[in-house]
Write a structure and sequence with these properties.
By secondary structure, the protein is of the alpha/beta class. It has 13 helices and 15 strands. It holds the Pfam family NIL.
């Protein structure tokens, strides 16, 4: 009993030291629209925390509440252990220096050079010019734009502009970086390079990053944990690989649609719910069982009991996450049952999607 109590106490202490962001039952309403409808979450130091949802879900409102640009109607927001909910503008100022932010449209000042843009937060803080410029040069080096110090934003590509945005956000050495759709205006290749820069900075500086996006690919590439938000509520939350492996809600499944195997349309179109020659079955699994031997073992145990239709093994946060579709002949009901039993015993999630009426 004693040892249990002390272990719990150590756990609680550890958590209070390491939590950078905590929201407790946060509400924000615009007229009849509940933009945030009871949000609670907790983000640890050094984490990349992704928040995903459709347009209008409440993502921007949530991120704006974190740096005091938006007020919560109700609930508590703690940043680095400090409750910011009741703070006035003057008290929010030092807090905002602990938080950097990057935006979809970069928000650079077009009349200022790259280094002036980057040094601007330091100028506002009253840092001397020589020191500001020194810091700007360091940051340009960090984001790979050392040769652009004197350039103006108009002469830069979108990816370069976002690198400047990232450098500016880091100027005041924040504890937290907020990203609101920072790659949504960029092409896929530039998106990858910006995400890899953010990951790099996260590793090098131990910087906590909260990233909001409507693209699962962004979450997949960079986030450690993800929360899915819909109509102002968190409908699902967890380690990215685990949410990808076993999404619980229709909204998450639909956000995942483009990046995990789906039954090909022409097969889905001819499925019947009442019967057919083959049952089409989805097989989902993650972790060690997903590493490959499963279907070889199944074929050895129950010869000619199935064929592979579609699917593959992905790796998310170094975890194998597999999703396959198989067809199982229905002429031998016992065999079909054995296939399902075999897969279930190996921790796969198995779902009969319907029966293929056409396949010969
Ligand atoms: N300043 C505002 N005034 C009125 N309605 C707003 C305002 N900001 C956001 N909303 C509404 O709140 C909801 C959530 O918006 P937002 O947080 O911008 O969503 P997202 O970033 O996920 O697209 C939407 O219905 C939006 O129209
Ligand atoms: Mg938004």
């Amino acid at each position: 009993m004693n040892s249990f109590v002390s272990a719990a106490a150590i756990g609680a202490k550890h958590e209070s030291l390491e939590t950078v962001v905590r929201l407790t039952d946060v509400y924000r309403r615009f007229g009849a629209t509940p933009a945030l409808d009871g949000i609670s979450l907790s983000i640890a130091k050094g984490e990349i925390f992704g928040i995903i949802g459709r347009s209008g879900a409440g993502k921007s409102t949530l991120i704006r509440c974190l740096n005091g640009l938006e007020r919560a109607d109700r609930g508590e927001i703690d940043i680095e252990g400090r409750n910011i909910t009741g703070l006035g503008e003057r008290d929010l100022q030092p807090l905002r220096q602990r938080i950097g932010m990057i935006f979809q449209h970069f928000n650079l000042l077009s009349a200022k050079t790259v280094e002036e843009n980057i040094a601007l937060p330091l100028k506002i803080e009253g840092v001397a010019k020589a020191e500001r410029l020194k810091r700007a040069r360091e940051l340009l080096d960090l984001v790979g734009l050392s040769d652009k110090a004197r350039a103006y934003p108009a002469s830069l590509s979108g990816g370069q502009k976002q690198r400047v945005g990232i450098a500016r956000a880091l100027a005041a050495r924040p504890a937290l970086l907020l990203s609101d759709e920072a790659t949504s205006a960029l092409d896929p290749e530039t998106t990858r390079s910006i995400l890899s820069l953010l990951k790099d900075i996260n590793r090098k500086l131990g910087l906590t990053i909260v990233l909001i996006t409507h693209e699962m690919e962004v979450i997949r590439t960079i986030a450690d944990r993800v929360a899915v938000i819909d109509a102002g509520k968190i409908v699902e939350e967890g380690q990215v690989w685990s949410v990808f492996a076993n999404p619980q809600t229709a909204i998450t499944k639909s956000l995942l649609c483009g990046i995990r195997p789906q039954l090909p349309d022409h097969i889905a179109a001819r499925l019947s719910q009442t019967g057919g020659r083959e049952a089409i079955i989805s097989v989902d699994l993650a972790g060690s069982e997903a590493q490959g031997a499963l279907f070889a073992d199944l074929a050895a145990e129950l010869p000619q009991a199935f064929r592979l239709v579609h699917g593959g093994i992905d790796h998310i946060q170094s975890q194998p996450v597999a999703r396959f579709f198989i067809a199982v002949p229905t002429r031998n009901l016992k065999l079909a049952g054995q296939v399902q039993q075999f897969l279930t015993a190996r921790s796969a999630r198995v779902e009969v999607l319907g029966y293929d009426t056409d396949h010969a």
